[in-house]
UniProtKB/TrEMBL annotation:
UniProt name for this protein: Lrp/AsnC family transcriptional regulator
GO molecular function, a single term: sequence-specific DNA binding
Assigned keywords, A-Z: DNA-binding, Transcription, Transcription regulation
Domain HTH asnC-type: 1-64
Gene Ontology biological-process annotations: regulation of DNA-templated transcription; response to amino acid
Species, as recorded: Rhodalgimonas zhirmunskyi
GO cellular component: a single term: cytosol
Length: 152
């Protein structure tokens, strides 16, 4: 599906304010409510809009510590990669897992209550991941900014 500048404006607004009413969205992008609704439905059906979510404040839910974990595997065969990827999906505190090109095979973004909680997560989950040869963890001291909005 091809998108035009109007579709991209709709996507930009929805990324910032996912709960905006169709009436307010149509006004913001200068389109009739029915045409705006049809475009949003088309963007959803085409997979441009994957989901609508609530973004939580990690501090308020008791998970203020962010830790980035670099993982090097024992090898990169399909079996080792598949086993690791299946297992890491099951760890609730892992928010993101990226297969990398570079010095580490994977980088994980992990949230925890504090250093003691991360030690528990490490001991009970991360250290038991299959195929891991080496791990290095880095604690974020402060989040300078965070965004989920893609530049459309």
């Amino acid at each position: 599906m091809q998108t035009d500048s109007l579709d991209r404006r709709i996507l930009a607004v929805l990324q910032r304010r996912g709960r905006i009413s169709n009436a307010d969205l149509s006004e913001e992008v200068n389109l009739s409510p029915s045409a705006c609704h049809r475009r949003v439905q088309r963007l959803e059906e085409a997979g441009f809009i994957k989901n609508y979510v609530a973004l939580l404040d990690a501090r308020k839910v008791g998970l203020p510590a962010t830790v980035f974990v670099e993982i090097t595997l024992q090898g990169q065969t399909d079996d080792i990669l598949d086993a690791f990827e299946r297992a890491v999906r099951l760890i609730p505190n892992v928010l993101e897992c990226h297969l990398m090109a570079g010095t580490a095979d994977f980088i994980l973004k992990v949230v925890a209550e504090d250093t003691d909680d991360f030690a528990r997560i490490h001991r009970q989950h991360l250290a038991r991941l299959p195929g891991v040869a080496q791990m290095q963890s880095s604690f974020a001291l402060r989040t300078v900014f965070r965004s989920t909005a893609l530049p459309v």
